[in-house]
């Protein structure tokens, strides 16, 4: 195994996950604020699960996001 290549592939994937997830969260929060569903001062729960069934990976990270 080429550890440097492997490390870079993991980083590329995680960067893609981070960027696309942030965009999606921002988009949905803005829509919810515009529709009146949210006021813009909430704290909401969030959960991210990463799965790679071929290696038995199923990892969940939970947290909160404060909007103010």
Q: Rg, please?
A: 16 Å
Number of continuous helical runs: 1
Main beta sheet: 2 strands, antiparallel
Gross morphology is elongated
Overall tally of structural domains: 1
Q: How are the strands of the biggest sheet laid out side by side?
A: 1-2
Structural class: alpha+beta
Helix content: 40-55%
Strand content: 25-35%
Q: H/E element string?
A: HEE
Uncertain stretches? none
Query: How many extended strands?
Result: 2
Report, as a whole number of angstroms, the end-to-end distance: 45 Å
Q: Report mean pLDDT, rounded to a whole number.
A: 97
Description:
The termini are far apart. This protein has one domain. The chain has one helix and two strands, in the order H-E-E. The model has no long low-confidence stretch (mean pLDDT 97). The longest helix has 33 residues. It has 68 residues and is α+β, with helices and mostly antiparallel strands. A hairpin with a 4-residue loop joins strand 1 and strand 2. It is 49% helix and 29% strand. The chain has a two-stranded antiparallel sheet with strand order 1-2.
Descriptive terms for the model:
alpha+beta, two-stranded antiparallel ribbon, 68 residues, 2 strands
